[in-house]
Amino acid sequence: MPEQSEITIAVNGALGKMGQTVMSAVEAEPGLKLVGGADPAAADPSVSAPGTSPVPLSAHITDAITAVHPRVIVDFSNAEGAMATFRAAAAAGVCAVSGSTGLSEENLQEAGTLAEEAGIGIISAPNFALGAILLTHLARISAAYFDYADLIESHHEAKIDAPSGTALSIAQAMLDGRGRPFEQNIAEKQTLSGTRGGELGGINIHSARMPGRVARHEVVFGATGQTLSLIHDSTSRDSFMPGVMLAVRQVVETKGLIVGLDRVLGLDDKA
Q1: Are 243 and 133 contacting, i.e. CB atoms less than 8 angstroms apart?
Q2: Which residues are catalytic, by number?
């Protein structure tokens, strides 16, 4: 039996690349204990990751909770999987940390209601890399001093959404910091449709997908006679793990919904 001081963890999306990385990180983290996993693709009764012993595996997170009774569920699946995690966590009175993207405002409102009514903590963040959170914070501050901005993001070829949830969060932070839309060049002639990318509040957003990338976000501000570039690279999935471990420790002390790792770090108070 784990010690009382240990925080027991079940991972939803345990067969995915991020789920496997989370499992290894949990096993290596003092005070945390990996006890189970869930994944819709489950075909075996157990799952392991590099550096971990096998733990029970279920096809649905509800079954995993029933089987292993975790204190926290860590979810890296998709928007549908995240909502299933939040609902199952609330019903069982356990906390949840999710890095799944694509959640709508309605999804987050439901998650907040679930957390409040169940008296649990839920943390939902589109990015757990501390450097990406700091980039967003710096972009918010810088936006007030520049008239033009572009945002370029690139990810691995298997990422299904574009732009990334992090890119949208960065863009919104820039608009919040500026307090009004950016000025924008409107091309009189586009010889290739879509070359200027997508647009949000005057920010042109460009997405690239290719093997060899994990995640890269670059913000370029422009003003008369100068530019300012802010870049963050995640070169491996391990870059997200310190943030995930921080969120796991915070969520057990939380009641209600926290959206964004910046709030865990207290950066929202410094904006």
Answers
A1: yes
A2: 155, 159
